[in-house]
Specification:
Helix content: under 10%
Number of strands: 42
Number of helices: 4
Structural class: mainly beta
Distance between the termini: 35 Å
């Protein structure tokens, strides 16, 4: 609690000190001289400084310098991670979800601003808590070719990308190729588990890994063609990813070995059209077709040989159409989304199953966004119907998603914002399959076709003070998941079945946290500090003796599950600093990870810290990343199971991630580049194969 008190005091002191800063103002959503952050009803618009753009090698490097709240940006590993339990983060360029190749080929001279949305409207899909939309200008001439080469000096790990874009008036032709590889060998795994048998006896097992490897080699090619004018944009994108060699994960224990390999191929076709009608109306349409082919093999050999193979194929089609009318004093958005998906996964060997599933989705939404005097508002309603069919089992769900956001200025540069939402969470397709996979000698993972969507209710209240050099935010958040899907273990004949169920469960959490950013020396030195207290509640209704039915392939029949109450309190926080010294850029980042609890599972995302030194000269940028310095074997994962029948603690460390040094070389060559404004509003991708996998 003392951590939060200190952060709260820092927020108040920062607000008081900021009153003396008079370099610029932010009035409603109009940018006034000197302002870098403009507050919006659903988030904020950030205008990167000249130094930030000039010293950013790619899109990940730029986002890392912005120190976006609740997100961890790793410019060396090319990842964006949401440090919260409210949902995932989605990165877009001109409204389109951006691939890694898009981020690495981003032209910094074309970047106008970044729209950071931390409470997305009903248009975005479920589970999306943060949307980062990089708005750029459209090149209308010239070319841009380059390369982004990332290689770890202390381990076998690399990501090499080359790209080219050519513009001819209204048309742009682009291509990129990337090669990714890794071979991490210094992994350590330890699991201490205690199983309570029906006789009352407790069987303790220590699983300690003495050797291991995580190896992959893949490549990706992407071709794009776009045509645009003052009132329309058409874009087509064809991409294909394939593992050159099967992804291999191998672990050696004292008396046995575990092994898994998989190879995936996935072509994707994306067609997009945006058309403006007059000054206020627009229509956007998007269609994405995806095919995924997966071949995998796994062995879990504790207590005897257990091996299985999976041959999987997935076809999906996703479409969206959105009409927008920018009226006064509000903007009206109406849209529909439709999707079809077919999954056919054949399990052979010890896990013998033929799992075929068809699913469809139709979603319609409407939203109003505007102002009533000083009050900013955004309100919408989404309605969807989802259908699943698997063998002799089928079901249809009707889901509603109302959402309301209100923002009001309490004083000069001080704004209060409240967000309320009710949504329905739908489980991953793999979790609702009727397949059973053995994990080890004592445990089996079982899908549950009877899982139903659960209702999620959330309240979010924020107090934000923002001026050009200082941003301070105090946030309170509460979420209730009624009848939610939670992990449970069921005991039968000395064996333990891990599954998901949602009858009678309730999972809720709240947090109070503070976020503070200070531009100590504008465009030269800045600091960020954030953190908060999180409280988690997980329990079943003591008045309800539920009966759980699991897949027939597990041969379990019906059995009573335990009734439990679990609570957990955690502190999550971090800090960063950026310095711009001529051609040099120095950054430092650290956080204590993310700690949470859901059902019988307590998770500890590992802490992260890294130092970066970058040097920019003309069209070449050279960066050195030091990750986890002064630590020989950092923690990469830690989990705990607190079941009535199983107590388990799992920790993983990696020697290759300790004192990790990564070198990045970025080169751009462009000529004849001229720009004009353009905005794309959406795109979609699919990567879910529905394959149930062991650990």
């Amino acid at each position: 609690m003392r951590h939060f008190i200190l952060l709260g005091l820092l927020t108040i002191v920062t607000m008081v000190q900021a009153q003396e800063v008079k370099e610029g103002e932010t009035l409603q959503e109009v940018v006034v001289r000197g302002a870098r952050v403009v507050q919006r009803v659903d988030g904020q618009t950030i205008y990167p400084s000249r130094q930030q753009l000039e010293h950013s090698a790619n899109g990940y490097s730029l986002l890392a310098k912005l120190a976006l709240p609740h997100l961890r940006i790793d410019p060396a590993m090319h990842t964006v991670t949401a440090l919260s339990n409210t949902g995932s983060a989605e990165v877009r360029i001109n409204g389109s979800p951006a691939s890694k190749e898009d981020m690495l080929a981003l032209d910094m001279k074309a970047v106008r601003h970044i729209d950071f949305t931390d409470n997305p409207g009903v248009r975005y899909g479920e589970g999306i808590a943060y949307v980062i939309n990089i708005i750029t200008k459209k090149p209308v001439g010239g070319y841009d070719i380059g390369a982004d080469l990332t290689n770890t000096l202390t381990a076998v790990n690399g990501d090499e990308t080359v790209f080219a874009k050519f513009n001819f008036g209204k048309s742009e032709l682009g291509a990129s190729y990337s090669l990714g590889y890794q071979n991490f060998k210094g992994m350590e795994y330890e699991e201490q588990a205690a199983y309570q048998l029906e006789s009352g006896e407790v069987q303790s097992i220590l699983r300690r890994q003495s050797g291991g490897q995580n190896k992959s080699l893949n490549h990706n090619i992407q071709l794009t063609y776009s045509q645009s004018d003052s009132n329309y944009v058409f874009q087509s994108k064809l991409s294909a990813r394939r593992d050159i060699q099967p992804h291999r994960s191998w672990a050696k224990f004292e008396t046995y070995e575990d092994l898994s390999t998989s190879r995936t191929s996935s072509p994707v076709l994306d067609l997009y059209l945006h058309r403006d009608f007059g000054r206020h109306q627009s229509l956007t349409a998007n269609a994405v077709g995806t095919y995924i082919k997966t071949d995998s093999h796994a062995e879990h050999n504790e207590g005897g040989s257990y091996a299985y193979d999976v041959a999987g194929k997935t076809w999906s089609l996703w479409t969206e159409a959105v009409y927008e009318n920018r009226l006064k004093p509000f903007t009206l958005s109406l849209g529909t989304q439709y999707g079809q998906k077919y999954i056919h996964n054949v399990y052979s060997g010890n896990a013998d199953a033929d799992n075929s599933m068809r699913s469809s989705m139709l979603y319609c939404f409407g939203q109003l966004k505007g102002r009533l005097g000083k009050l900013g508002y955004m309100g919408g309603l989404g309605v969807s119907t989802r259908y699943y069919r698997q063998g002799g089992w089928d079901d249809r769900f009707l889901l509603f998603r109302p959402k309301l956001t209100l923002a009001y200025p309490l004083a000069r540069n001080l704004k209060a914002k409240y967000d309320f939402e009710i949504s329905q969470h739908v489980s991953q397709i793999a979790l609702v399959s009727d397949v059973a996979i053995k994990q080890n000698a004592m445990e089996t993972l079982v899908g549950n076709p009877d899982i139903r969507p659960n209702r999620v209710t959330s309240h979010d209240l924020r107090l934000t003070y923002s001026i050009p050099r200082v941003t301070a935010e105090l946030q309170g958040y509460w979420r209730l998941n009624a009848n939610c899907n939670m992990e449970k273990y069921i005991r039968k004949d000395g064996h333990f079945y891990q599954t998901q169920t949602n009858d009678g469960n309730e999972c809720s959490f709240f947090f109070i946290q503070s976020y503070n950013r200070w531009e100590a020396i504008p465009e030269h030195l800045s600091f960020t500090l954030y953190g908060g207290i999180y409280r988690f509640f997980n329990f079943t209704d003591e008045r309800l003796r539920e009966r759980l039915r699991v897949g027939a392939s597990a041969g379990m029949g019906e059995h009573s599950s335990e009734i439990y109450r679990h609570t957990y309190t955690a502190f999550n926080g971090g800090a960063s600093a950026e310095a711009y010294l001529g051609k040099w850029t120095l950054t430092a980042y650290a956080d204590n990870g993310w700690h949470f609890m859901e059902g019988e599972h307590r998770g500890h995302q590992p802490a992260s810290w890294h130092l970066t030194a970058s040097y920019q000269i003309k069209s070449v940028s050279l960066s050195l990343y030091a990750q986890n310095p002064f630590c020989a074997r950092p923690l990469t994962n830690k989990t705990e199971v607190l079941s009535r029948y199983i107590c388990k603690e799992v920790s993983q460390h990696s020697r290759d991630f300790g004192n990790m040094l990564t070198l990045n070389l970025t080169w751009h060559l462009s000529s004849g580049r001229k720009y004009r404004d353009i905005q794309r509003t959406m795109n979609h991708s699919d990567s879910e194969t529905g394959i149930l996998q062991g650990k």
